[in-house]
Amino acid sequence: MDIVVTGGRGASGRWIVDRLAGDHAVTCIDQELPEQGGYPDVEYLAMDLTDAGSVFDALTTLNPDAVVHWAAIPVAGTHAGVALYRNNTLAAHAVLSAAGRIGTRVVQASSDGTYGFFFAEETPLPDHVPVRESHPLRPEDPYGLSKVVTEEIGKTVAWRDGVPVASLRPTWIQEPGGYPCRDEAYVSDLSAGAGNFWSYVDVRDVVDMVEAALDADFEGHEAFNCAGPDNALGEPLVELLREFYGEVPDNCAVDGDDSVYSTAKAEELLGWTSDHSWREAADEAVPAPEM
User: Fold this and answer.
1) Are 53 and 110 a contacting pair, CB within 8 Å?
2) Cα–Cα distance between 124 and 20 in angstroms, integer?
3) What is the pLDDT confidence band of residue 248, given thresholds at 50, 70 and 90?
4) Residue 192 CB burial class (10 angstroms; 0-12, 13-18, ≥19)
């Protein structure tokens, strides 16, 4: 396929470009061009993705088979809230609208921040565990809210233009050999990971889900949780919840050290399962892609 990847020079975006460039014609659109020229088989465009005219011009010229929209300010607290919200929502609107107009399928980065757990003033317990994609979205912060709006844009484009749009909701992304969710400060302090209930996902599993979503046969807009096969502490999740929060949701059906997030929907519709646990990946020697 001819695939456009936005944000392909970012921390997880580079892993996506590295994987897709092996089998597809990839154009990476980001704020700046790589200093050393980037991958030899990848084309690069420098662009402000909040500029809808530039985005429309680029995508109609390239006319790709698919767009992987991965560009965003990826976390709250690093920018003024209004700037983060503006950047993420306007970029999503520009990219997805242009993709829809030319009939191009979309896979985009959403986040488990949509649920509103991590950046809440007081982290609420989920309504049910495991957390399924149908769980209410209640973000209190600009980042989580921007991702809710991004998904709503995906729904609009899918309905209006008849293209499939997959919104992936990764939890805390880890790179092999550099798992901060296994640092001593994290594993020795129960509060360190309580905001997302000690969940994580390996970047290679994220890339696998992107590939699966590009190939999957579905219609409309679908959101998918993207999480590792277990929790980062390796302890029974029910016991962790009870120890930290003093209670567990009434609707609670997890076994052992399961992740708080259900990925059953991704398995059913995408044929995807998470293959990488911290037990092996935290010390794995896998070089990160270099742009």
Assistant:
1) no
2) 38
3) very high
4) middle
- Mean pLDDT over 20-49 rounds to 93
pLDDT tens digit sequence for 95-148: 999 999 999 999 999 999 999 998 888 888 999 999 999 999 999 999 999 999
CA-wise closest residue to 37 among 24, 50, 28, 25: 28
Domains of the chain, earliest start first:
2-281 (3.40.50.720)
> What is d(CA 109, CA 151) in angstroms, rounded to the nearest whole number?
9
φ, ψ of residue 168 to 5 degrees: the values are -90, 135
* Beta bridge partner(s), residue 45: 29
Span 170-198, mean pLDDT?
Answer: 96
CA-closest candidate to residue 125, choices 255, 252, 231, 232: 252
**Is the pTM higher than 0.85?**
yes
**Given a cut of 80, is residue 179 above it in pLDDT?**
yes
**Rounded-to-integer distance, Cα 29 and Cα 33, Å:** 8
* pLDDT at residue number 31: 94
Is 221:154 a contact under the CB 8 Å cutoff?
A: yes
- DSSP per-residue string spanning the chain: -EEEEETTTSTTHHHHHHHHTTTSEEEEEESS--TT---TTEEEEE--TT-HHHHHHHHHHH--SEEEE--S--STTSS-HHHHHHHHHHHHHHHHHHHHHTT-EEEEE--GGGGS-TTSSSPPPPSEESBPTTSPP---SHHHHHHHHHHHHHHHHHHHH---EEEEEE-SEEBTTB-GGGSHHHHT-GGGGGGGTT--EEHHHHHHHHHHHHH----SEEEEEE--SS-TT-S-HHHHHHHHHS---SEE---TT--SB--HHHHHHH-------HHHHTT---PPP--
